[in-house]
Design a protein that fits this description.
The protein is mainly α. Helix content is 53%, strand content 3%. The strands form 2 sheets. It has a two-stranded antiparallel ribbon. A two-stranded antiparallel sheet has the order 3-4. The protein is globular. The mean pLDDT is 95. InterPro entries: DUF1800.
């Protein structure tokens, strides 16, 4: 691949989370990007509640809603979430492997679990650490299985409550079949909406998934035969025998389906490169994904090693609110402040953390979320941060060192003409180079 002059800036800002100095990238930006898969910086989760503990905290908080007296359980849940968020953001701000961290965040959004219902109020961040982070460098099948069977996903997409109508539990009319998880497994997580599956496939997959639930006492996922729909199931032309082993079989088939490689490639290129994904790049990524049986490290290499990933694609992708916040803190070398302050700031910018509006996750095209009000909020955010950090920052030098050849003459001139350090930094933070990548 021929390296363009602005390649260091693309490596730092398009694929990573922003760097204050491009000379840290080295002479080979592609090697800097791909090398992050060799030894990604580990996330330190010590002292944070795991998924089972978070579910217990959630249940206690929900029970306390209608109980008179101090709401200590609710406070305990809020504090656990804030500790998890603060640790997560500190990792993203300080990590030496930011491209790999972006890779983790892409998959966490692909397999979204949101704290938008009572049962999932405390499990979003344990789910990211337990189901997503450990599996993003292996085969897609393993990641798919970990996400599908995590208690957070079983609760979020209602499979924990789904019961086969012909099962012993179903015949007692305890509950009925719920198709939410099956539908999203096909439409969002694997083959995609254009793969040609039918409503009958959704129903059959929902029947196959029955029995997989969350044990109330331990908060772990398990298979309960009494809730499982008896008989064979047929999904997208393939037959699966009754029993828990059918889940592994169907996940392997869906994970390695050609439509899944195409669906994943489309989403990856749209996320990392352009709102309108270049078709040759999508085909290259899909082909490598399919040819390697869903090897995610090889899939990443196909994406980042392609010359189309390093082209300008004007006007460039807009950073999401969380990316923008993290990039600014990395740029300024500022430590993560109180989690509640970050949460409020991201909510004002339109994307409250952990609360994506649907199982689709946060959209990847700016037309879905970057309206006029969001732009005004971004300018206000830049002004506020400029007032806080501007007097201690040489924004002119920072702009040159952080963006190099990608710094436009217009942005450079505006910063040079600023009346104060606060104004200069605000102009840098609000500039297209900072807002887009």
């Amino acid at each position: 691949m021929q390296t363009p002059a602005h390649a260091p800036a693309l490596a730092a800002h398009r694929f990573g989370l922003g760097e204050p100095r491009l000379d840290t990238i080295g002479r080979d930006p592609l090697a800097w990007v791909l090398g992050q898969w060799d030894a990604p910086q580990a996330f330190d989760a010590s002292g944070l509640p795991d998924g089972a503990e978070a579910l217990a905290l959630t249940r206690a908080a929900l029970r306390a809603v209608n109980t008179p007296g101090p709401d200590n359980d609710r406070q305990a849940l809020v504090q656990a979430n804030q500790r998890a968020l603060q640790r997560r953001w500190a990792h993203m701000v300080g990590t030496a492997t930011p491209v790999h961290e972006r890779w983790v965040q892409f998959w966490a959004n692909h397999f979204t679990v949101a704290a938008t219902k009572g049962a999932t109020l405390g499990v979003v961040w344990p789910y990211e650490r337990e189901a997503i982070r450990p599996h993003v460098d292996g085969r897609f099948t393993a990641l798919l299985r970990a996400a599908t069977l995590h208690p957070a996903m079983l609760l979020y997409l209602d499979n924990a409550q789904s019961v086969g109508p012909g099962s012993p539990a179903g015949r007692r009319r305890e509950r009925g079949l719920n198709e939410n998880h099956a539908r999203e497994l096909l439409e969002l997580h694997t083959v995609g909406v254009h793969a040609g599956y039918t409503q009958a496939d959704v129903t059959e997959l929902a029947r196959l998934l029955t029995g997989w639930t969350v044990e109330p006492g331990t908060g772990v996922a398990r298979f309960v035969p009494a809730r499982h729909e008896p008989g064979d199931k047929r999904v997208m032309g393939r037959r699966y025998a009754e029993g828990p082993q059918a889940l592994d079989a169907v996940l392997e088939d869906l994970a390695t389906h050609p439509a899944t490689a195409q669906h994943l490639a489309q989403r990856l290129v749209r996320h990392f490169v352009a709102d309108t994904p270049p078709e040759p790049l999508v085909r290259a990524v899909a082909r490598r994904c399919a040819d390697t049986g869903g090897d995610l490290r090889q899939t990443a290499r196909a994406l980042f090693d392609h010359e189309l990933a390093w082209q300008a694609h004007a006007p460039g992708k807009a950073r999401t609110p969380e990316e923008l916040h993290i990039a600014a803190h990395r740029l300024l070398g500022r430590p993560v402040g109180p989690a509640q302050r970050w949460t409020n700031a991201l909510a004002a910018l339109g994307q409250p953390p952990g609360r994506a509006p649907s199982p689709q996750g946060w959209p990847d095209t700016e037309a879905d979320w970057l309206g006029a009000d969001a732009l005004r909020q971004r300018v206000a955010w830049a002004v506020q941060l400029g007032e806080q950090a501007g007097p201690q920052t040489d924004a002119r030098a920072l702009a040159r060192e952080a963006f190099g050849a990608a710094l436009s003459e217009r942005t450079r001139t505006e910063i040079e003409r600023a009346d104060s350090g606060a104004q200069a930094l605000a102009l840098l933070l609000a500039s297209p180079e900072m807002q887009r990548r």
